[in-house]
Amino acid sequence: MKTAETTVPAPLSGSLNRTNCPKVLPGHLEKLAIVYVRQSSPTQVLEHRESTARQYGFADQAVAYGWPRERVLIIDEDLGKSGRTAEGRSGFQRLITEVTLDHVGMVLGLEMSRLARSSRDWHAFFEMCAVFGTLIADADGVYDGHDPNDRLLLGLKGIMSEMELHLMRNRLEHGRDHKAQRGELFFSVPVGYVILPTGEVDFDPDEQARDVIRLVFDKFDELGTVYGLFHWLIRNDIQLPIRPQRGAKKGQLDWRRPSICTLANVLAHPIYAGAYSFGRQSADPKHQLSSTKYRPRVPMEEWKVLLKDRLPAYISWERYLQNRERIKQNRNQFDCQGAPRSGVTLLSGLLVCRHCGRRMRTLYHAHGKAQYDCNHRELTGLAPRCPGLAARAVDDLIAQQVLRALEPAAIELSIQAQSDVEKERLRLEKHWQQRRQRARYDTELAERRYQAVDPENRLVAGTLERRWEELLIQEKQLQDEYDRFRSQSPIGLSAEERARITALASDIPALWNGPGTTNVDRKQIVRCLVECVTVHVSGHSEFAGVTIHWAGGYESRHEIVRPVRRYEQLRDLKPLLDRAQELRANGQTVGQIAEQLNTEGFHTPTGRGQIKAPMVNKLLQRQGVVTDERANHGLLGEHEWWLSDLADELQTPRYKLQGWALRGWIQGRKTPIQSCWILWADEEELRRLRALMERSQPGKNRQASDLKRPKKRPEAG
Q1: Cα–Cα distance between 348 and 359 in angstroms, integer?
Q2: Residues 415 and 281 in one domain
Q3: Is residue 335 part of a domain?
Q4: Bridge partner residues of 483 (DSSP)
Q5: Average pLDDT of 327-346?
């Protein structure tokens, strides 16, 4: 805020240099006169000083209209701000506040474009002035919002001001686009590049900066994910070369900790493939009006300019497209493979349902088992739903086929593994040497600066001495870190390490199942060899068809047995039932039938474990075959009881009677087929058993040896 005491130029000449204006009434003079000063950009503030001076000169004109100098208020808080919108203009907001408080008699400005270049803001402003009786003055005259002619002029001036802004913007945008079409428009360049004084773009002159950028692309090819690349750089303490675009260190090389955003921008920017691009972000106005100012990226075919082979390149254009596709496939979406994760399944993102052609999702149950499921028909309302399958069945097949494909290349894999380890260690060794060389240079430079200063000038010498000591300490710390790195990772492989790599490569199954091999490692190996796997699952059979689409175009077809829930889903159910009935007809018990079926290769629906007697019993009962020998009452003789019936009679648990029968405390026998207990007990035996039951109760005297001897069973008549 500035008051009338501010030094301003002499009053303007022309129509405004008048002392009596009929529109200025005593009521206006009782209020404030506000002079609004604005320039559109900081550049205009510095270079267009005459326009700024003319705007300040309106303070004297307000005095000429009759306002006391101390009642003239200058608002210049919006110098360097555009009038395209009222947002962010604190001075304009302050002006509106004063008007709505009925504190202002006149608002003065050089022209209407100083107040607003938006018809919406301008019309709202002069309508507000009309409501509160505030006059508006510019270089052409004084306007009253209640006067129809003045309203017409104010409206036309607002329209002309807004149209002038659009014309200027169109000229600037056309000039910008024309320069971009030639591939010469650069606002800034990403890391690894610099803009030369001639306006051309070239590699960063620092060798270490260039090597780090190349290292980023090489490790992404190896690791395959931005997050994996980020964590590898952090583990190895590798920083990125950043040249700030503003601030005290503008243009100077600065080494900073990597970030996910920076790495993603490096991998997605076409300049690293030597291509000039413009218009990679959306220019939709609704994104510009959002609070975050976020502008999403647009597809490559919608870029305004794409000129290949125009700039120095770190990678080829084909490699750049491969990186883009790899990043896209790493997304966790239904149409993408997704990045390899730590789950136990091998085919997450690779398994395709043959029924609908969609990728199958992975489900993990509470007990730790995984399942592949296709929910496309469920989401689209189509029927029937595509059946899923247990992950273990198809994963075991893929692991077996992948290991078989890797066995012939064991020697080549061993040699390649040794070469990769040595190559990475040499690369890290070079990076450490460059860091040490840079630290040594900084220390020597600080020493030369200290030696060059006059020792008597202690204010400067003390500062340079402290800086030299700090760099010496940093160099010593860097040397210690380098020594630790060399002790943990020597440049060359030792004989023991080479032998270990050879042994692991020669026994690929052991390496595959080794504790040091993670699920992510196994998935990455599978993705190197397999493009996708198509599975055809039928809900009426435990057999599923699997087609492996190998890298290179070869396809192999297989059949697996998957776990199902019911026997009715087994393809071999009829032969199983026929064989069980045949064995039952031969007089075998259900236990013997189950043992024979397991021997002949029949299996349960889940495929785990063996067929048990209760399973056989249920299957035969479904076929109408009587398997419960207790239903044949002809097996019971005089005074004979089924064990369950006698337990109910005595009101005692069945297991207790069975234990007594095994100890010989009660007469009994087993049926020949199902081995069911048949116990003998007449009236006298029932009384003995009840007495024995009473003695066996907790807290009773258990000396009942005479009651444990059963009555001799009479001979059959």
Answers
A1: 9
A2: no
A3: no
A4: none
A5: 82
- Each residue of 349-372: b (16+ CB within 10 Å) or e? bbbbbebeebbbbbeeeeeeebbb
Tally of CB atoms within 10 A around 461: 16
Q: Read off the CATH number of the domain in which 205 is found.
A: 3.90.1750.20
Q: What is the share, in percent, of the chain residues with pLDDT greater than 70?
A: 87
Number of domains in the chain: 5
Number of neighbours of residue 567 by Cβ within 10 angstroms: 18
Residue 556 annotated among the catalytic residues of the structure: no
Quote the pLDDT of residue 209.
Answer: 92
Residue 329 pairs in a beta bridge with none
Say what the pTM is: 0.67
Give residue 360's pLDDT.
Answer: 85
Rounded-to-integer distance, Cα 343 and Cα 361, Å: 12
Handedness of CA 546, 547, 550, 554 (dihedral sign): positive
Say which of 40, 113, 118, 348 is annotated catalytic. Answer: 40
Same domain, 136 and 80: yes
Where residue 98 sits, what CATH number does that domain have?
3.40.50.1390
b/e string for 126-144 if b means 16 or more Cβ within 10 A? Answer: beebbebbbbbbbeeebbb
pLDDT at 673: 60
Domain's final residue, options 563, 588, 611:
563
Per the CB < 8 A criterion, the answer to whether 336 and 532 are in contact is no
What is the distance between the alpha carbons of residues 105 and 155, in angstroms, rounded to a whole number? 20
Q: Based on the domain organization, do 553 and 645 belong to the same domain?
A: no
Shared domain check, 552 and 444: yes
In a domain, 58, yes or no: yes
* pLDDT at residue 10, as a whole number: 40
Domain that holds residue 614: 567-627
Q: Which helix (H) or strand (E) holds 392?
A: helix 391-406
Long-range Cβ contacts of 17-21 (<8 Å, 24+ apart): 17/61, 17/64, 18/64, 18/65, 19/64, 19/65, 19/66, 21/65, 21/142
SS3 281: strand
Other Cβ atoms closer than 10 A to 249: 11
Per-position DSSP letters for 706-717, written without gaps between them? GGGSPPPPPPP-
Percent of the chain whose predicted confidence (pLDDT) is above 90:
20
18 domain-assigned: yes
In this predicted model, what pLDDT tens digit does every residue of 530-562 receive, in sequence order?
888 989 887 777 788 889 999 888 889 998 888
Give the end of a domain, one of 281, 301, 329.
329
Under 8 Å CB-to-CB from 518, ≥6 apart: which residues? 342
CATH number, residue 674: 1.10.1660
Residues 255-299 have pLDDT tens digits of 999 999 999 999 999 999 999 999 888 777 666 666 666 677 888
The answer to whether residues 621 and 670 belong to one domain is no
- Give tens-digit pLDDT for 381-421: 666 677 778 888 888 888 888 888 877 766 676 677 777 77
182 assigned to some structural domain:
no
| Token duo for residue 235 | 């583990």
Closest-CA residue to 273 (of 390, 372, 193, 393): 193
Q: Give residue 540's Cα distance to chain centre.
A: 38
414 with 557, same domain? yes
Do 595 and 640 belong to one domain?
A: no
Q: Which CA distances in Å does 473 have to 443, 452, 463, 466?
A: 10, 21, 16, 11
Please report the pLDDT score of residue 17 as a whole number. Answer: 42
Q: Are residues 676 and 548 part of one domain? A: no
Question: Rounded mean pLDDT of the chain?
Answer: 82
Q: Which residues pair with 641 in a beta bridge?
A: 679
Predicted confidence band of residue 34 (pLDDT cuts 50, 70, 90): very high
* Per-residue model confidence as pLDDT tens digits over 414-445: 677 777 777 888 888 888 889 899 999 999 99
